[in-house]
């Protein structure tokens, strides 16, 4: 699948040509943004699961870097499973 090549190429490009302008976390965040575009259903499932636990993996934490969260939101009680199932599995279909 070319999605993996694209994300690695993006990271290589950012490091090589913009390494002084981005932190490692910002480069990872950009790669995760692209991953979320390529695999919307899987990334949303991961986000909801990790948000409900309150424990994010490093890649998901990078995606959430500088995100403004509503402190009053109660994500643990929200059922989004039907909405997530309606998302496409993959953009571009390999």
Describe the structure in brief:
With 94 residues, the protein is mainly alpha-helical. Helices cover 61% and strands 0% of the residues.
Describe what you observe in this structure.
- The chain has 94 residues and is mostly helical.
- Helices cover 61% and strands 0% of the residues.
- The longest helix has 17 residues.
- The mean pLDDT is 85.
Question: How is this fold's topology laid out?
Answer:
Layout: H1 2-18, H2 24-38, H3 40-53, H4 58-63, H5 81-85
Based on the model shown, name its key terms:
mainly alpha; 94 residues
Count of DSSP-assigned helices = 5
The chain-level mean pLDDT equals 85
Helical residue percent band = 55-70%
- SSE pattern: HHHHH
Task: State the separation between the terminal residues, measured CA to CA.
Answer: 6 Å
Q: Assign an overall shape.
A: flat
DSSP strand (E) fraction?
under 5%
Structural class call reads mainly alpha
Q: Enumerate the spans where pLDDT stays under 50 for 5 or more consecutive residues.
A: none
Please report the total strand number as a whole number.
0
Main beta sheet:
none
Rounded to the nearest angstrom, the radius of gyration is 15 Å
């Amino acid at each position: 699948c070319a999605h993996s090549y694209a994300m690695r190429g993006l990271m290589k490009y950012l490091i090589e040509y913009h390494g002084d302008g981005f932190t490692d976390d910002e480069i990872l965040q950009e790669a995760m943004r692209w991953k979320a575009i390529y695999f919307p259903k899987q990334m949303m499932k991961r986000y909801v699961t990790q948000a409900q636990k309150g424990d994010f993996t490093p890649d998901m934490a990078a995606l959430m870097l500088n995100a403004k969260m509503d402190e009053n939101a109660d994500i643990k009680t929200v059922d989004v499973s039907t909405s997530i199932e309606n998302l496409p599995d993959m953009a571009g279909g390999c």
